[in-house]
Amino acid sequence: MNEWMRKILESKRQTRSRLAALPFSEKVKILERLRDRSLLIASSDLRRSFSPRPR
Amino acid sequence: MKDTISVINQMKADGVVGKYAIGGAVGATFYLEPFATIDIGIFVAFKQTPDSLLVSLSPVYDYLTARGYTLEGEYIVVEGWQVQFLPPGNPLEEEALEQAIETEIDGVEIWVMTAEHLVAIALKLGRPKDYSRILMFIESGKLDPGKLDSIFQRHQLVGKWEAFGDRFLREL
Question: I need a labelling partner for B142 at 20 to 30 A (CA). Which of A18, A34, A46, B54 fits?
Fold first, then answer.
């Protein structure tokens, strides 16, 4: 693993730790935003048009 | 979600259900970073009807639909969140419900499974997303190894845990 990759992974680990340390109420607010985004993605025409055909 | 939990708390106060515990991704979010999820999995102690050994979800659905909440497949939508009510299906889930810890969201009380029980249930389920979550719990350092070990012993999960370790933890 090169230094650049190591820095990326360390930055990612720090962000995850910072988010995990937030109060539960704050994390729930983020959870709600993630939920809204997931529902939006799931309902988009673009996603539907690229859905794999059942075999 | 605060409003959803308030409704569940009121349902509990009205005697429709007993103790409850949040599991799944929302439960894990108490300990880890937030996950993208569209539903709340709630393990609930249901009241058994006197003439049946089966646990009935009807009182919960009757209570919530009478208040205008709607069914969507296996979910009931409560204040914008899809909620799945789950009766504990085995001794591990019963214990997880019993030992859930109390916390709060902006002043609203909520019960969440312990980190060790969430890991044990994930290990038992064994889907790719469960294994991924277990690795996140391990990395977080939030697990009590002694508590985890005793849960694995009590619920015959030692073999599965060792197999998990062989597969995913060799390089850690």
Answer: A34
